[in-house]
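Worked example (supplementary).
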Amino acid sequence: MPLSDEAYLTGEILDEGSALSVQDLERMFALEQRRIVEWVEEGVISVLEIDAAEWRFSGAQLRRARIALRLERDLGVNAAGVALALELLEELEQLRRDRRLGRP
Amino acid sequence: MEFKDYYQVMGVARDATEAQIKQAYRKLARKYHPDVSKEPNAEARFKEVGEAYEVLRSPEKRAAYDRLGSGPRPGEEFRPPPDFGSGFEFSGAGQGAEGADYSDFFESLFGRARAGANRYAGERHFDTGRGEDHHAKVMLDLDAALTGGSRSFTLRVPEIDADGRLSMRERVLNVQVPKGILPGQTIRLAGQGSRPPDGAGQKATPGDLYIEVEFQPHPLYRAEGRDLYLDLPVAPWEAALGATVKTPTPGGAVDLKIPAGSHAGTKLRLRGRGIPASPPGELYVVLQIALPPASDEKSKAAYRALAEALPFNPRTSLGV
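After joint prediction of all chains, the assembly is encoded as:
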C-alpha cells in the first residue's frame, strides 16, 4: 500500500539540475497544456532552452508555478499579472537583502 | 467553541452589499496572501479572511449565519443551534481557497468541506489510470539541510469515507531529508500520492507527493538561497584594531580574523560554509558593534578618556 506511515522515505530533490517536461508540469498541477504555454509566453516560468524541440524546465520553476497557481486562484490575477507580481516580489526581496547588508 | 464574527474579520458592516464584501475580500486577500505578504501571521489571517468570504459571499450561508445574531455573550461558549441551517440549501462548502482547512466554528455550521484531492486548479482529469499527484508544504529546520537526516512531518489529508463524507486524516510522513536542500525546493516522493482509481488495472501506479520546503527561522543563521548570514557582535576595539575572534559556523566554532578598520555591517565571507548544496553556499558574517556598558566608575572613566583622546562626531554625514 503506498500510504505507509512507517518506513522512512527517500525523496528526490527537484532543483536547477532537473529537467522537467511539459507533461510533468501538466500532471503535477493538473493543468492543461495551454496554461503552461501561456505561462511561458507571459514569462511566469522560463524554459531551459526556448528553441529546443521539447521544452524542459528546471526545478526552480516549480516554486514560481506554485505561486502563480495560488495568486491566480486566490486573487483572480491573470498570467501577465502573475509575471509582474513575481518580478516585483523578486525586486523587493533583493532590496530587503541589500538593506540588511547595508548596501546603498 | 469560539464564535467567529465574519463581518468583523472582513471589516464590513452587517448590511454590506455583495460588491462591498467582494471588494473588502480582494483587498484583504492581497494584503495577507502568504506568497506576497510579510505581515506577521499572514497565513492565519488569510485563512480567516477566506473563510469569512466563503460564508458572506453565498446568500444562503450568509442568511443562515445572520440568524445566529452577533454571537454568544462574552464568556459564553458558542454552540450551534440544533435547527441551524434548516430551510437553507447550501451548495458544497469546499469551493473556496485551500479546500478543506476551515475552523471548527465553520465546520460545526456548514459541515466539512468537500475534498479536492489536488489542491490546484484540477481542471484536467487524466485517464491514464494513475493516481493523482499531491502537494504539501513543510517547514524544515535548518539543521536538516546542513546535515541531512530523518524528519517526521504531519500532513492533514482529506479523505472521503464510505458515506461520501469528508474527513481529515493525519498522516505522519517519515522522510529522509537530503543534505543540502534549499528553501523553495521541491522533494518528490514517488508513489506517495493518491492510489490509482478503482478498476484502473494491475499496472496502474499511485501518484507522487511533492513537498515544498521552507525553513523555520534559525536562532543564529538566516538562509538566503544556499548562503547563510550570521550577525556577529564584536567589541569596538576589535573592529577598529583588528582581532581574531571565535565565531560559530554550522560545522562548529572557528577562529575568524577581523580586519583592522572594520565597522558595523562589514561583511566577511567564509567560503563554502553555507548550506552544503552543490555547489555549497557561503557563510557571510556581518559584524555588529557591541558597546560595553558604562556600569561602574572604572568603565565610565575609560569612556571619558576615549572621548577626550578621540574627538569624534558620528553625525557629520547628517550635516549637524
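Two points are worth noting when inspecting this output. The helical segments of chain B are 6-10, 18-32, 42-56, 59-66, 104-110, 142-147, 236-241, 297-309. Chain B touches chain A through 57 residues (CB under 8 Å).
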